[in-house]
Design goal:
The protein is mainly α. The protein has 4 helices and no strands. The chain is rod-shaped.
Length: 108
């Protein structure tokens, strides 16, 4: 799979010509696969180049935020697990540490 990202202007041109020529002919004319054009049409619809760039930046930000949330959830899971201890030999259960009010560091 290629890691090449087409410029937003080229995507907009291909989608505009796909509306007039048809997907197969526009794909052949612009030198891209028809499946790529169908994917762009599904993802970007009738957007212009500026809107395509905006969608791409929002998608990248969404991925970054989801990764941050996942890292914080892992840290929280570790903190909650650290408060639990094995039962002492006297037969009494130890109470888990109350970490509900413990601050979570966002800095790495």
């Amino acid at each position: 799979m290629s890691a090449y990202r087409y410029p937003a202007e080229r995507i907009a041109r291909v989608l505009a010509s796909a509306g007039t020529l048809g997907v197969a002919e526009a794909a052949r004319f612009h030198g891209v696969n028809a499946a790529t054009v169908y994917g762009w049409r599904r993802r970007f619809g009738g957007m212009g180049a500026v809107a395509i760039e905006r969608v791409r930046s929002l998608e990248a930000e969404n991925v970054r935020l989801m990764n941050t949330v996942a890292a914080l959830e892992q840290e929280l899971h570790k903190l909650r697990g650290a408060g639990r201890t094995a039962a002492p030999s006297s037969g009494h259960r130890a109470e888990p540490a109350d970490i509900s009010r413990a601050p979570i560091s966002l800095a790495r």
